[in-house]
Amino acid sequence: MAQSAMLRARIDEETKAQGDAVLEAIGLSASDAVRLLYRRMIAEQAFPLELKVPNAATRASMEESHAILRARTARFSKADELIASLDG
Asked: Which residue ranges form the domains of the chain, and what is each CATH number?
């Protein structure tokens, strides 16, 4: 067996807890998931998820959602307003 190496990563507690719950349901540990990620990168010679730079409209939407979260406000006060904006 090959000698093992240590890999450390920092992640916020909530993301880790949620991710660990998903992995547990699948029957994997976080170490198993990282090993699978690395093996897939090696096999495909690429990162196994499609990563793209967001366009201007997507960046604006992302910033708007972050601003809403920071302000702890809603964009619409009623569901009807939301539906009307989608139809409009």
From this structure: 1-49 (1.10.1220.10), 56-87 (no CATH)
